[in-house]
Amino acid sequence: MKRTGDIVCFSPNYELSRLITAEPIEIVDQLERRVEGFYLGPADLLNRKSHSFAAGVLCFVAIDAIARYEVARGYSSDRFKKWIVKLPDFRQLADGELDLVYEDFRNGLLHEGRIKRAGQFTYKIPKTVLIENGVVLINPRVLVDQIRAALELYVEKTKSDRRRLQLLAHAIMKDFEEDFKLLPP
Known about the structure:
Layout: E1 9-11, E2 14-15, H1 24-48, H2 52-70, H3 76-84, H4 95-112, E3 120-121, E4 129-132, E5 135-138, H5 140-159, H6 162-175, H7 177-181
Parallel strand pairs: 3-5
Antiparallel strand pairs: 1-2, 4-5
Helix pairs in contact: 1-2, 1-5, 1-6, 2-3, 2-5
């Protein structure tokens, strides 16, 4: 089976096929462009129009995408929770509160298209996350900025560590192995 018509891109304006011969430093640059171009940039646009739900969904997809490579091992729940505590406003949350964020937002949004247990995205709180009486509120404007800062730090650390750079490149190549097989020659 082969795709026809459109070009498959890894990041905006970067064809997936180029990854096959890319150097690890180029791969990490393109991962950053992918997260910025497909998730965080569009989330900014949605936030400007006060579309908090759609912006928040993109934020949670970005978190999963980054955690997939930065944390790498374990179940998605473990990766998610280990990664999200890198964000300043999530550091002080207890394990049970992190479970609420994971279950109500990440799983609710990505598996059911909704936020569970009356949680919501709102611009009315000054920080990223607020949990009151088991109800989670998240400000997607602040969240996108904190994700972006964490991504930049991850990319910077990865570029300065050859082993980390090789591991990231290998993981991305493995994740997209089946996609490469379906690209036109």
